Structure formats: structure tokens, C-alpha cells
Amino acid sequence: MNIFIALVHYPVYNKKGEVVVTSITTLDIHDIARTAKTYGISKFYILTPLLTQRELAQRILRHWIEGYGAEYNPTRRDAFLITSVAGGLGDIIEDIERSTGKTPKIIVTDARKFPDSISFNELKKELIKPYVFLFLFGTGWGLERGLIQRADYRLEPVEGITDYNHLPVRGAIAIIIDRLLGR
């Protein structure tokens, strides 16, 4: 499958509307990696410009790929084998181009609907085309607007039955991937 996902920790907003770097959480790494593996995602990237945060994520990955965790829980190891850490979006795009020979089409997600948002049904039709796709999922209070504007697609938001719309990112990712790739 030529679908890649990235959990973006920068550039994202905080609740005051300031562009910030958010912290990596271990639960996100575990849960998103397992979701990605379950649905055949080619690779799951954790994007942060902070060296200390990248080192933390690498330490977690090493534990589950090479360390005691690999022996303790081989299925978790399988999920982490498709997980990678990157310092910037350019690094991710270069890695995808190296592995596929194609520049990915960028799909962004947000809790808000944009005038040119693509529906889940429309995007499902696009995903069968012979392109490579990279989904960007924002942490904090969402992806920086410039990043959203530059994307090839802006996916409509996941909406529940109330006006409240602040899902945990790992929950939103699972819902989105299932809606697009699930049986």
C-alpha cells in the first residue's frame, strides 16, 4: 500500500493560537503504530524538530524492536518496525521518495471543515489511484494553517453527534483510517 501517515508535533497550535512544538506521548506511539500496522499503512512517522523528543521516541522504538520488548511482545515489535522518527516534513517526503520513487500527495486533517474539504467517500476514490499519499495528523490544537493551505487535500473532519469536537489524535487517526481503508 502506498499510504503513509505522520503524527506532526510541529508546526501546530496551542490553545492560545500560538505555533508551538508539542510533546511526544508514549501512548500515541504505541496506539498509532498498532493502528497503522492493522490497516496496512506503509510507514508511520513521528515528526518533531526537538532532538530530545526524537531521542525519547527512538529509545521507545529500540526497546520494542531490539530490546526486551521485542521478545516480550512480538506483535508490538511488528507495529514498531513500520514506525520512524523524523525532524521535519522534508525528511519524511525525502524518505518516501527514496522508497517509492514518487512524491507523495499530502492529505491534512483538522477538526474544522474548509470550503474545499474532501469527503471521506471522495478521498476513498482518490486512494485507489496510482499515487503515494501522506496523511498529516496534528497534535495540540491542530496543524498550522500554512501547512493546511499547501496540502493537496484537506479531509473533512470527523464529526460525532454533538457540537463537541476535540478527539484525541490517536482516536481520530483510528476512525479516519478505518473509514478510508476498513472493510
What does this structure look like?
Helix 6 (120-127) links the parallel strand 6 and strand 7. Helices cover 43% and strands 17% of the residues. It starts with a strand and ends with a helix. The strands form two sheets. It has a six-stranded parallel sheet, with helices on both faces. Strands 2-3 form a two-stranded antiparallel sheet. The chain has one domain: 3-Layer(aba) Sandwich (Alpha/beta knot), CATH 3.40.1280.10. The chain has helices at residues 26-38, 51-65, 68-72, 74-80, 89-100, 120-127, 145-150, 169-181; strands spanning 3-8, 12-13, 19-20, 43-47, 83-86, 105-108, 133-138, 153-154. The mean pLDDT is 95. It is an alpha/beta fold. Helix 1 (26-38) crosses helix 4 (74-80), helix 1 packs parallel to helix 8 and helix 6 (120-127) crosses helix 8 (169-181). The longest helix has 15 residues, at 51-65.
List keywords for this structure.
single chain, 183 residues, alpha/beta, Alpha/beta knot, two-stranded antiparallel sheet, 8 helices, globular
Question: Summed up, what is this model?
Answer:
The protein contains 8 helices and 8 strands, in the order E-E-E-H-E-H-H-H-E-H-E-H-E-H-E-H.
Instruction: Give me the strand/helix succession.
Output: EEEHEHHHEHEHEHEH
Total DSSP helices: 8
What is the architecture at the second tier of CATH? 3-Layer(aba) Sandwich
How much beta, percentage-wise?
Answer: 15-25%
| Helical content band | 40-55%
How much is the average pLDDT? Answer: 95
How many structural units, i.e. domains?
1
Enumerate the strands of the largest sheet in spatial order, edge to edge or round the barrel.
Answer: 5-4-1-7-6-8
User: What is the highest CATH level, the class?
Assistant: Alpha Beta
The N- and C-terminal alpha carbons lie at a distance of 15 Å
**Based on DSSP secondary structure assignment, what is the total number of beta strands?**
8
Radius of gyration over all CA atoms, rounded? 16 Å
Looking at the structure, what is the overall shape? globular
**How would a crystallographer describe the biggest sheet?**
6 strands, parallel
Look at the structure and name the CATH superfamily: SPOUT methyltransferase, trefoil knot domain
Structural class: alpha/beta
Query: What's the CATH topology label?
Result: Alpha/beta knot
Give the low-pLDDT segments.
Answer: none
